[in-house]
Amino acid sequence: MKINSASQQKLTMNRPQTTPQKAGQSPIKKNKYLVQSGVSSLAKTDNKVSKSTAFSHDLISLIKNGGNGHHNSQQLDRKQNSRSKQFLDINEANLKKIRPNSRQQIQHLVKSKKPDSNLKYHDDLIQKQYQKLLDLQKQHQQTHKSPPQIHNRAMSNGDLKPTSDIANKLIEYIKKQSAKKIKGYRSISNPDIIVTDRRLISKYAVKTQAGMLHTKQEKVNQDSYAIHEGIGNIDNSYLIQVSDGHGVNGHEVAQFVQERLPIIIDQLLKSHKIGKNDQDMMIQVILRQAFERTTKELYTSGIDITFSGATTVCLLIIEHVGWCANIGDSRAILGRQKDGLHVVELSHDQKPDLPKEEKRIIQNGGRVQAYSDEEGNPIGPARVWLLDENIPGLAMSRSFGDYVAAQVGVISIPEIIKHTFQNDKFLIMASDGIWEFLDNKWIVEVVYGYYLKNDAEGAVERLVHEATEAWKKEDEVIDDITCIVAFLN
Description:
The chain is an alpha+beta fold and 489 residues long. The protein folds into two domains: 49-181, no CATH class; 198-303 and 310-350 and 412-488, PPM-type phosphatase domain (Phosphatase 2c, domain 1). The chain is built from 13 helices and 15 strands. It has helices spanning 50-64, 69-95, 103-112, 117-143, 150-155, 165-181, 250-271, 279-299, 355-363, 403-406, 432-435, 440-452, 456-474; strands at 11-13, 201-209, 223-229, 237-246, 309-318, 321-327, 331-337, 341-345, 366-372, 378-386, 392-394, 400-401, 415-420, 424-430, 481-488. A six-stranded antiparallel sheet has the order 1-2-15-14-7-8. Strands 3, 4, 5, 6, 12 and 13 form a six-stranded antiparallel sheet that branches. It has a three-stranded antiparallel sheet with strand order 9-10-11, with helices on one face. Helix 4 (117-143) packs parallel to helix 6 (165-181) and helix 12 runs antiparallel to helix 13 (456-474). It is elongated, with a radius of gyration of 34 Å. Residues 1-57, 66-70, 84-91, 93-100, 144-163 and 178-197 have low confidence and may be disordered. One of its GO terms (molecular function) is protein serine/threonine phosphatase activity.
């Protein structure tokens, strides 16, 4: 799914999806990896018990179809009564070596003989097993939870001792079916229960709003964002992205990056064979190539990028490992709970006065300097300028576009940080409208309260509100604000 945050509509989703979401429709994709119930085939036996096998097949079919109460019980009784008379009396005849040579003799045996006690016990055993499974299914439907060891109690009582291969196979089948019908987490007390495939992101919410000019007029929202699931046709993968435009055409640049960067990453992931041993190296190569290709396409897009550009932070997640690629001062952090609540930074703001960034700019013929007052005192953040001219005044050292700044060392090569998710409770990704006046630790503490209530929408509402109030107090303008909060499994 790709969402354009240029609109100011507030969105809350249970989970990401890759197709457009209709109103009121849950974005959770149906999990195709849930274990589906299947019937294991029974091995064939000799002719002596062929009809017993057929009887077991009928019972298995009845179990598979849900064991529908009274009607199915009556049907089972009729089949049992009719067939048991046949194959039990034939077995008795075989035991006495009175082997019938014709259909008439077989019919005579059916009418005249009585079932022996051993096979009657076998019938009783199957009836008990069937009733146990019906009780088990009824209890599961009422609770929707997995009672500890209930399938073990149902299948391993001392009074249920199988006396034939068919009974053994039937019991094994019932064990498998009950384990599949009762989903839950694997544990020491529940070793046979099937574990369902769990997605990393359980819920997320997004909010974006346009800033305000010093004239108190609302400006064009130059932020954009995108959320994709199943990127590169990889199972349990996500791409989450926020771009923050600046300059006259910043909104066009941010929109272009929002549309093209995910497509290019998707194409590169599909065209490269990524093994477990070289996954980290290949992902980093793919992300750098994607940023480079996006830059080249932007230069030929027809958008005037002389003094316009966009920052971008994007997080590529595959299973439980993430790679965060960042240029500029949009930011992504995690809230981790281990021996207390902690902030984990997935990106670093790239400011012109950082030693590495400033060195590159100076080597390319630029200078780094903040605005200054009449007495020469610095005002505001450090900015990038041409050596002999007071342009462009860019407050970051990496971005898409910004043609003039690119001549003096501003680049679009991302810094990439790899992270393995463990004990991480939630993700916060936002444009610098959130981060300008709000502290990382304070943000994590606020979001944690909403995480405990499973209220992602409340979290983004609170953060955007607090950031807006901070801008009003600290500045004459309000920057565009975009915020994504995702709760993690």
